[in-house]
Amino acid sequence: MPSQWNNLLQNLGEWHGSFTRFSPQGEELEDTPMVVSLEGVNNNQAIHMVVRRLPPGQPPQEKVLDFSSLSRGALFFPNGAFSQGSLQWSPFAEFGAELGLINESRRMRLVQMFNKESKLEFISLVREKLAGTDTPERNPLTVEQLLGEWQGEAMSIYPDFSSPETFATRLHIRREGENRLHQELKFGDRAIASTAKINGSTLLFDRKSWVSSPVL
Prior knowledge:
It is built from 2 helices and 14 strands, in the order αβββββββββαβββββ. The strands form 2 sheets. A 9-stranded antiparallel beta sheet has the order 4-3-2-1-9-8-7-6-5. A 5-stranded antiparallel beta sheet has the order 10-11-12-13-14, with no helix packed on it. The protein has helices at 4-8, 143-146, and strands spanning 13-22, 28-41, 46-53, 61-67, 74-76, 82-85, 95-103, 106-114, 120-130, 148-156, 165-175, 180-187, 190-199, 202-212.
């Protein structure tokens, strides 16, 4: 199993994209072009990171960070995907997390922030591609494209660096009438079922349940 630091190195490069912030209701609040550069230094023993936000009609905003270790709140998978944020929730304090997925020359990051009243404050999506690549951005997903059975593999890693676990997954999504969606996710010996109301481009999940299921 590669080390956490080696997993982080899968993110090296110059990533071009945009930082899009949404309200809790899914309304787009702002969309800002940005460039994130992660450069290995000292034979990749440290990383020099530069984040440049390019708001239209305003001067560029730049943030520079150099580091040679990871915080306890960050976990990286072998392909470079990651999760980082607060280790635990506490009342009367802001809480947030960043989740990152990476696939070859494209990267997607999701930031969730909750206020001191434990209510969702905003969601941000960061869509990026490596400099020098021409992978086109896909059109927004439709409900019809989500329908069907999706098979994959999941991996769980832990802050105490105990052995990771991998298991098969199956996600089945179907319509229930014209304006409702049902999904069931099976992984290992468990399953999660939930239903949602389709409201334009937003899915409003209102029912969920945990059930046992046979090992896949």
